[in-house]
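Let us practice reading a record.
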Amino acid sequence: MSLAVQQSTAGNPTQALYASLNGAQKPGEKELSPQDRFLKLLVTQLKNQDPLNPMDNAQMTSQLAQISTVDGIEKLNATLKMILQGSNENQAMQAAALVGHGVLVPGNGLSLSGGMAIGGLELAEPADRVTVTIRDANGAAVRTIELGALAAGSRGFAWDGLTDSGAQAADGMYSISISAQRGENKLQATALQMGVVSSVVRTGQGVGLNVGALGMFGMQDVRQIL
């Protein structure tokens, strides 16, 4: 903040005060707010101005406008901080309600248990044909599922554990890949994996969801609640 200092006829106390206000804070002293510091400097300046060359009205008005601007900015920052805190609390409550629920989050894992598995996908655009390919741990394709035409957005799908040959696949971890087309054009498609939210964790970036073995995800990563 710029503050014009008039030359004093007695040792320039304004500069001394300015130095003390901006120097090291003494132990036990309350830190001055920008408004208090500005006002002390302005009062000292008025007291010690040169009578032959006093501060003009335009200069004083300009400095008062500066302090008004600083005060407004600080109030705005305080209001934004309160809004952010309220938003974080609301997000934490929403996240807590997900504990114990299944969610679809980005990832290509697919867990087969008891002959049943649930996966998902997200399309950026409508597609004429969507195909899900399920692979085993060695990368070999075991099942191809044709989902037909789908609209843009996210959705889940179920796998009964049967391979393309009709045999029952062993329980365990598999992976999926998504192919989407409209006409002859390939479209962007994202694989989603299903997990159960076990706990909620506060992080420096907000609220995190612990989705078991899948790891940590943000609220923005949840594509669907099952």
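A brief commentary: Residues 57-96 form the longest helix (40 residues).
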